[in-house]
Amino acid sequence: MRKFEHLILAVKLDLKESLISKWFIFYMLFFGIIIITFFITGVNKSALAGFSGLNRLLLMYIQITIAILPIFILVTTVKSIVKDRVSHVLEYLLSFPISLSDYYWGRFIGRLITVFIPVLFALILAVIIGAFQGDFTSIKIFALYCMLIFSLSWFFVSVAFFISTIAKNQDTAVGVSFGVWLLLLILLDIILLEFLMQAKFNVPEYVIMILALLNPLELFRIAAIMLFDYNLATIGPVAYYILDIFSNAMFLLLTFCYTIVLGFVFAYGGVHLFKKRDLL
Questions:
Q1: What is the pLDDT of residues 199-237, one digit of tens each?
Q2: How far, in Å, CA of 163 to CA of 270, rounded?
Q3: Distance separating the N- and C-terminal Cα atoms of the chain
Q4: CA separation for the pair 106, 112 (Å, rounded)
């Protein structure tokens, strides 16, 4: 246990700092209010594109999660290391017997917990309120959705820490994070991908599919919709290409594993650069 003493200390330090911060309180209230607003406005009482009840509410929650969660994570996390370095907090912490790895992973784990809890809380809140109103969803779908949200949170925390490690100042870190977010949103445009498929640009279909499936946001979106719409009828012709290659279970597994592995690449890349760079 003493082996992880400094790591646990770093996790507690980040949790203590994050849980009393204004951004966390706003973050927590934001997702909770969204769910409550959905129920107040009767989203779960109406039907759209074949979806009704709690399933429709969760699908709308998916769309908001895709748009809001990444930028929330990036902007609030990307300053973590660079802020400590610029403010000389890092210099102070390193005067104690704590390794660079313990500091990095402690901050990483602490931030992952704080960005995942509010989204998970809102999801649990939706399921509980829905159950009281007679709307239910299966435990399997709930568990898979939680896994997908965790993998997405893991990926963007990893990217944020990687950026925070290489950025020279906080403004640069925030600017790069916005650029990453916008790039992934642009590649998320399924309408653009369908246009490329149907237009005469001589772009091979497999190239378009690879571009789409390399984007963790696109994978998350399709996988989350697949939990409620097994035939992916709501995303258009792209569904045929996906379902010809992957079964539902295989695609869900691909989404989770790819996002986690890609997150590991950025996380370990970040800690490697963190150890090699002039920190102070």
A1: 555 666 666 677 777 888 888 888 887 877 777 766 666
A2: 8
A3: 30
A4: 10
